[in-house]
Design brief:
7 strands; five-stranded mixed barrel; two-stranded antiparallel ribbon; single chain; de novo design (two linked rop proteins)
Length: 262
């Protein structure tokens, strides 16, 4: 980065042990994108800023430019999102999926990703506040994060021919909603309420999203997870934990059924 010291505001998305007392901290920051840096001595009881450099931490950090990894020299807390997240299993697993997704989508270090940073901060703020359903917050984040990455599923028009909807089929491999003419074998029929929920979450219309039925939420979550992991080409470790909680809470009849092939 060409300077010996630099400062940025970021969110801690991952921590890894290094040696006996240090950690490698991965952050998504406002100006510099993904930054991986060594936080020395943070695993010791008397560390000056160890507690601030935990996942979900929203921090103002000063770094020293090192040869292979930069070094954290100062940390100040901006928002303690973790206080409102880690004590609730559903919020914690949803938040973990948000952090892992952000880490995976921001592959290159030093590449500016301001929009992704803002999406993560907004989603964690909503989770920590506890005013919205955590699965809706997670699904809204995943849809918008996929739009950031250029993978947004087609919802209101056919993914293949762009004919305006609403349409009755959805195919992950084909890119989303499909009209009756373009619908490939193996598509599912999610229902108008499910596609309506996806659209509401994408554009941030929370009133209809929060009024949606459990079955629509279950099906929407399944489509979003399938679409994301299709493009990532491998699964998220944290996402199945969220899905298990949803399965435990949802009655069996709400599980989506695949549409028969034509």
């Amino acid at each position: 980065m060409g300077v010996s010291l630099y400062r940025d505001i970021g969110i801690v998305v991952r921590v890894q042990k290094l040696g006996e007392a240090d950690r490698i901290i991965t952050l998504i920051t406002r100006k510099y994108g993904k930054v991986r840096a060594v936080a020395k001595g943070v695993r010791r009881t008397g560390s000056r800023f160890g507690a601030r450099l935990e996942p979900f931490g929203h921090v103002d950090v000063q770094f020293y430019t090192g040869r292979s990894l930069d070094v954290v020299t100062q940390v100040q807390t901006v928002d303690a999102f973790g206080v409102g997240i880690v004590g609730d299993y559903q919020r914690y697993t949803a938040g973990s999926a948000i952090l892992e997704t952000a880490d995976r989508l921001c592959a290159e270090e030093g590449e500016p990703v301001l929009r992704l940073y803002l999406l993560v901060a907004g989603a964690l703020r909503a989770l920590a506040g506890g005013q919205r359903d955590s699965t809706l917050v997670l699904d809204a984040f995943l849809l918008r994060a996929m739009a950031f990455a250029g993978w947004a599923p087609a919802i209101t028009e056919c993914a293949r021919c762009a004919t305006p909807g609403p349409h009755t089929a959805f195919n992950v491999a084909a890119g989303g909603a499909m009209c009756s003419r373009c619908r490939p074998p193996g598509s599912v029929n999610p229902g108008a309420d499910v596609l309506g929920l996806l659209d509401a979450l994408m554009i941030g219309e929370w009133e209809p999203a929060e009024a949606s039925h459990t079955s629509a939420r279950r099906q929407a979550s399944g489509l979003i997870a399938a679409h994301l992991q299709w493009h990532l080409e491998r699964g998220l470790r944290s996402l199945p934990l969220v899905e298990r909680r949803l399965r435990a809470d949802a009655p069996p009849e709400t599980l989506p059924e695949p549409a028969p092939e034509p």
